[in-house]
Write a structure and sequence with these properties.
Blueprint lengths: L1 E4 L2 H4 L2 E3 L3 H13 L6 H14 L5 H5 L22 H9 L3 H13 L5 H4 L5 H54 L3 E5 L2 E4 L7 E3 L6 E6 L6 E4 L7 E5 L17 H7 L1 H9 L4 E2 H8 L3 H13 L3 E6 L2 E6 L1 H9 L3
Parallel strand pairs: 1-5, 2-6, 6-8
Antiparallel strand pairs: 1-4, 3-4, 7-8, 9-11, 10-11
Helix pairs in contact: 2-8, 3-8, 5-8, 9-10, 11-12
Length: about 325
Amino acid sequence: MKQIAMSVGDLTRIRFAISPILTTVLSVRSFLQSPTTTAVMQDWHKAMVTGLDGHDLTALRLFHPLGNHTIDFMFPFPAKTENRFDDELQRIACTSISVIEAELDNLFQHGVISVEDISNYKNLPGLLMQAVDELALVWRNVMCPNWEKINAVLQNDIVYRSRTLANGGVLALFQGLSTDIHLESSALLSIYTQCQSDLTVEPNGHGLLFVPFFFSNSSVWLQTPVNTAPTVSYQAYGAGAWNRDVTEGNGNDVMLKLFGKNRANLLYALIQPTSTKHLALKLNLTSGAISQQLNLLKEANLITSERRGRSVYYLLNEKGKQLLHLFNV
């Protein structure tokens, strides 16, 4: 178990970020383990198999010993709220070999890697470059073709969490993130992870950074970099529906007859906060058609909106949710 001893200042400096490299690395880690029984993860596992086309990811396997550990240098601290994969990959490529050696030694001391395993890491510079090439392969063949959908899930999650924090405070935020995250008191956050030892961290005024991820074999991931905010990564809200085709209908014939296919599907899609662009992508409609429908729903007081950067995200309000509830959606 790890704990974060927070000050009032830390709680007022809660931030969110999207990290393509973290999403990619954790997806690789889940792939390297036995595929899960859930249908969503099985679909993602198939996408990985198809995209890798026989590549074994030899170096990435070595940097994920036992399948459920990942050497820390693979997770560069998100420099911005929204980050580019190429920039983050370059930071991994520039990692000092002495840093990797220290992290490997720590895993050896905790029994994660054995004496016999050490010989696999003799050529660390070459292994590092191979791992960078393998991550680039995973991004190019698997993540990038699906990134628009994945990024929509991550963006929608941040809007949802930000709204939860604004309306319910830090307790509501922490309660909804993961069953492995517990706010023990107003100043102590406990996180149950697959770490080698217990640890208590003090952010010292740097605040907390939350980074949603897409798929992983862990529900929560904690990084404790020096002289910056502890980073808590968690499963994004709505990740299970990333590849769901809303245009197939929600299975409610009464809704479809009353509202028509497009408006019924739009209402269904707005269960999660979503931008006009992503709604158009999901529903195979033009942005103009989506905007027209959204204006009608706003006039009916069924949705609310919130700006995040250049995008406006729309979400069913309580009245809208009650409407769907009438149709058992």
